[in-house]
Design goal:
Pfam families: MFS_1
Number of strands: 0
Number of helices: 18
Membrane topology: Multi-pass membrane protein
Helix content: over 70%
CATH topology: Growth Hormone, Chain: A
Distance between the termini: 72 Å
Radius of gyration: 26 Å
Strand content: under 5%
CATH class: Mainly Alpha
Order of helices and strands: HHHHHHHHHHHHHHHHHH
Protein name: MFS transporter
Shape: globular
InterPro entries: MFS, MFS_dom, MFS_trans_sf
Keywords: Cell membrane, Membrane, Transmembrane, Transmembrane helix
């Protein structure tokens, strides 16, 4: 990762994202804890995460908009808008205001997919193809490292000051990111736009995903795993409440432990991409979630720490493998639409999963559901692993050296012996 961090432009982007990721790590889990305290419901707390993911259905439209504007300018504007979207949180007082938390969560989800699509294009613009895995790994290292302190800081701020502090910290983070990234020396020209009918432009990202066999398999396998992995967003509250008999804020401790695993996984992810390819790394990330979920089916704190640590390792492997694959296999003019379409294809099943989990946790034993998640993710990981060789074509190819221009052969004087060749006839070989 040191190689990509030596680049001044990526280093500046890295600093800006550090600010926004800090705000994000403090905000998201604390919103769910806030809803849990206001309503006392595990299902409604998990529903907060569902509200964040539900807007992913608008991904094709979002990606189309992102691809029509310069990457840096759009990314800065999206951060400024995100800061404004958090202001309704200052008015939340009691359980009757929970709808405001859901509204902000949904708007933030729309902003998240916008920022992700713009960021994918910006990274593709700033970083050479051979350094994409390192760039994504570096960003995931920061994101996962923040899990060590972000959830605890968010829970502490919420307990000490209240929910309005979460909105304040989030706004500062996104405003800082906008200010830093605006200083990037990136060309401001918009990506070339293929002039098609607007329905065709909206669907260009999905068509590209469907047309590439390696992308198709990666998204199918990841989507199958996401159909059940989202259960854990609600199940973890039941695990802490019913299994460990602890307060909902203890979820912040578990997420911090998960951050340790995420940090380890992010540090290892570029090496795994080089060794097993993007699809192999994605397969490992999905499969590792299986034993973690199986371990959480048994309510023991020591085993729970091991489980969330393993779940943490799996997350950056999935993200680095998938994002690097998308960036390498997509033309620059389509990166926004393909990245947004990927979020929709992956997050759509996840949103269904979170909503289903929030409902099922009220009727079925959370241990049975964790066991189901474990078996299903192991199967999805095995499906991806069998297709890892498809990703070989996605690896970094050494640049082809430029072919030197072919110079015409020097012309020599025409001799008498050449006349038959020039005229189209040949001398008999014996003459």
């Amino acid at each position: 990762m040191r190689t990509v961090l030596r680049r001044p432009d990526f280093r500046l982007l890295f600093v800006g994202l550090l600010a926004s990721m800090t705000a994000e790590s403090i905000l998201l889990l604390a919103l769910a804890i806030w809803v849990k305290d206001l309503t006392g419901s595990d299902g409604l707390a998990g529903g907060t995460i569902f509200a964040v993911i539900a807007p992913m259905t608008l991904a094709p439209l979002v990606g189309w908009v992102v691809d029509r504007y310069p990457r840096r300018t759009f990314f800065v504007a999206a951060n400024l808008v995100t800061a404004v979207l958090l202001t309704p949180l200052f008015t939340v007082r009691d359980a009757t205001d929970v709808w405001l938390v859901y509204l902000v969560a949904a708007l933030y989800g729309l902003s998240y997919i916008t920022l992700s699509a713009a960021l994918s294009g910006l990274i593709r613009q700033l970083v050479p193809v051979e350094l994409l895995a390192e760039a994504n790994g570096a960003l995931q290292t920061v994101r996962q490292g923040l899990r060590l302190i972000g959830p605890l800081v968010g829970a502490a701020l919420y307990a000490a000051i209240g929910g309005w502090a979460l909105a304040g910290v989030g706004m500062v983070g996104f405003l800082t990111a906008a200010a830093v990234v605006s200083a990037l020396p990136t060309p401001q020209s918009a990506p070339p736009i293929v002039r098609l009918r607007w329905p065709a432009e909206l669907g260009a990202g999905l068509r590209h995903l469907a047309g590439e066999p390696v992308l198709r398999r990666a998204l199918l396998g990841f989507g199958l795993g996401s159909l059940v992995m989202g259960f854990s967003e609600s199940l973890i509250f039941a695990y802490v409440d019913l299994g460990l008999d602890r307060d909902a804020t203890f979820v912040g401790v578990l997420v911090t432990v998960q951050g340790i695993g995420g940090l380890l996984g992010a540090l290892c992810s570029p090496a795994l991409v080089r060794r097993f390819g993007e699809v192999g790394t994605l397969a490992a990330g999905v499969a590792l979630f299986g034993p973690a979920a199986l371990a959480l089916a048994y309510p023991d704190l020591r085993l729970g720490f091991v489980a969330v640590l393993l779940a943490g390792v799996s997350l950056p492997l999935r993200m680095v493998g998938l994002h690097t694959l998308i960036q390498r296999r997509t033309p620059p003019a389509l990166v926004g639409r393909v990245a947004a379409a990927t979020e929709a294809v992956v997050s759509g099943p996840s949103a269904v999963s979170i909503g289903t989990g929030a409902l099922l946790v009220g009727f079925l034993d959370y241990r049975v559901l964790f066991a189901l998640v474990g078996v299903a993710t192991l199967a999805a990981g095995a499906y991806l692993w069998r297709g890892r060789r498809l990703g070989a074509a996605a690896g970094v190819r050494p640049p082809t050296p430029p072919t030197p221009p072919t110079l015409p052969a020097p012309r020599r004087p025409v001799e008498a012996t050449d006349r038959h060749v020039i005229s189209g006839t040949r001398r008999p070989p014996w003459r």
